[in-house]
Structures are given as C-alpha cells and as structure tokens.
Write a structure and sequence with these properties.
Strand content: 15-25%
Largest sheet: 4 strands, antiparallel
CATH architecture of the largest domain: Sandwich
Helix content: 40-55%
Distance between the termini: 48 Å
CATH superfamily of the largest domain: Jelly Rolls
Radius of gyration: 19 Å
Number of strands: 11
Number of domains: 2
Strand order of the largest sheet: 1-8-3-6
CATH topology of the largest domain: Jelly Rolls
Shape: elongated
Structural class: alpha+beta
Length: 227
Amino acid sequence: MEDVKCNGCHLKCDSFKFLTKDELELIEANRSTVVFRKGEKIIRQGSIFKEMVSFNQGLAKIHIEGTGGKDLLLGIISSSEIIGGPGLFHDKRYSFSLTALTTSRICLIDSEIFMQVFKTNYLFAESFLREFSRRYNDFFQRFLSLTQKQMHGRMADALLFMADSVFNADSFDLPLSRQELGEFAGMSKESVCRILKEFKDEKLINTNGQKIDILKKDLLCRILEAI
DNA sequence: GCATTAACCACAG
DNA sequence: CTGTGGTTAATGC
C-alpha cells in the first residue's frame, strides 16, 4: 500500500483541513495506516484508549455489547470521520466497538498527539466536536426509534437509514447479515426475516439475498411515521 | 376470551 | 447464515 502524506491525502475528513502544515506533520509522524478486512475489529469496547480512528474509506459498524453476547448496532460509518468516542475525554476506554463491514482504510492516530493538536487549534477542535456531536445526536435518534416504535416501524427506519444516510440510493447491497440487521433494528433475526418477507409480499421492497430495492418509499415512510 | 406482538427453539437448506 | 413454522408469554381490546 502506498503511503500517502497527510497533506496530500484526499480521503481525510474535513476537520483535518483546519490543521497547519506543522500540525499535520506532527499527526503524520504519529499515525499508522491500516486496511481492515470484513469482520475485523478496528477498536474493541472496554480496551484502553490509545488511538483515534480516522476512518477514510469503506464501511464499518459501531456497536456495543449487551448481555448474553447480544450486540446493539448503533451506527454505520460510511464516509470520512474521526472516531474515538467519549473515552478521549472521559475514561481512557473505548465505549463501543468498531468493526469493518467491508474492506476499510483507516488511519490510527496516537491519542496523546491528537489531544495536543485539539488543545492548540481551536478551529480544528470545533470542527471535530461538531462531527462528534452529530454522531451522538444520531445515537439519540436511534434510541427514540428503538424505544417508541414497533417492529415494522423500526425495520422501515433501518431500511430508510441505509438508503438515505449510507448509500444515497434506493437500491443497495445490504452490508449487514439478517442477524446484524436485527441488532440494528432491535429485534430477533427471525423477526427480521418475517418482516422483510411481509414488506416484499406487499411490494414495498424487493429482496434477493443481500440486495434490497425500495419500491414504495412513500409507504415505507408512512410505516416509519405510524408509531 | 381472543387477537396481537414478538421472542425463543428447532430444523431444513 | 437464511428462512420457516410452532410454541410461548405478555399485553390489549
């Protein structure tokens, strides 16, 4: 893999554009670039917070571990973003796991160095916190969906999220297994199968393995709105 | 009571 | 891993 300089890297997220040449070189000297394959864990919930993740390319899931080995899938990373979680400021532990859903290109930045730059460059810090806040806002919206909607509404939510926030298309190859989709929509994998079949029978969507086509988005939106 | 919702289990492909 | 069918428990008319 070619080692692109941070300065000329077009994959890095917008926050980095606020860094001075010196700051970017400092980051560069304290980061590694790693490619993760599907299923590989990028960060592990509970482990010591050593590095910030600069996610550059690919697809990954943010998930937290529940009891009995059951996960809750909180979000999907599909574009460049700096990820680390509250551990950077709070308890020096990762508060969630990050797992690659497809081959993903990531830079790992020493957290001490990241913090150093955070403290000296206000525009960078503000931009980073804006991204950070947006991410947590999304989590809160998920909680709302998970706690106040019934299964069909949650499934419609999950499918529309994939279409609008991840793929920007109404047809896509779902990067999640039925099990993972269940972890995202807060239901068992059996319920996922049943509801997808119902949606398919009602011609709201078409499914073929991992391939999903949303056929009647307006009706799906109505299911989403109707509790 | 009866219907609905949704999880758990078993099992086939 | 995916999908189906049966069972069960809780909740709501």
